[in-house]
Amino acid sequence: MVELVVFALMGAGTLAGAVTVVLARNPVRSALGLLGALVSLAVIYVVNLAHLVAAVQVVVYAGAVLTLFLFVIMFIGVDRSEDTSETIPLQRKLVAGLATVVALGAAVLVSRGRFSWTPASGEAAEIPNGTVQALGGELFTTWVLGVEVTALLLTIAAVGAIALAFHRRSAETPTED
Q1: How far is CA 149 from the centre of its chain?
Q2: Which residues of 62-98 are buried (b: 16+ CB within 10 A; e: fewer)?
């Protein structure tokens, strides 16, 4: 039951973040909506016992890719002045109350001992889907050709980008006759 509630809340958070990405006029707010969607999705992965996928989601997408997006946004220049007045009355009190309710709910679940991140079934022979063992087993048995082809294509793309950058740089520098 708890997993269903967390899944529903994080699903709503993911959808709210996605809608914010599309509808926000300010690119920084759009990037923050993307962050909310990515973190909510990572929590959904944790609820489904895919801890490795959740960690990769946070580190790669919410960390590296979103940082890259913010650097690009700041590089292109979002230097117009913003209206910082609060448009929703009592929004700070509303958020503080919501955070208090969530924290108290989590405290009640933990104190009653009815909450666990382990699977409900006691079958130890089955490896959960999101673990390192399950993912590694699939990558090195079923999908080994696809992984190797992808690695080869990425290596070729990196070498090509470096070669083009080097060629353009040498073409721009004037040679002395």
Answers
A1: 25
A2: beeebeebbeeeeeeeeeeeeeeeeeeeeeeeeeeee
Q: Is the dihedral of CA 139, 140, 142, 147 positive or negative?
A: positive
| pLDDT tens per residue across span 116-155 | 655 554 455 566 666 777 778 888 888 888 888 888 998 9
The radius of gyration computed from the CA coordinates of the chain, to the nearest angstrom, equals 23
24 and 30 in contact (C-beta within 8 Å)?
Answer: yes
Q: Is 159 exposed, middle or buried (0-12, 13-18, 19+ CB in 10 A)?
A: exposed
129 contacts 52 by C-beta, under 8 angstroms: no
Q: What is the pTM of this model?
A: 0.56
Q: Please list, in sequence order, all residues whose beta carbon lies within 8 angstroms of the beta carbon of residue 62, skipping any fewer than 6 positions away.
A: 35, 38, 39, 42
Alpha carbons 11 and 36: distance in angstroms, whole number? 11
Sign of the torsion angle spanned by Cα atoms 68, 69, 73, 76: positive
Query: Tokens 């709503």, residue?
Result: 12
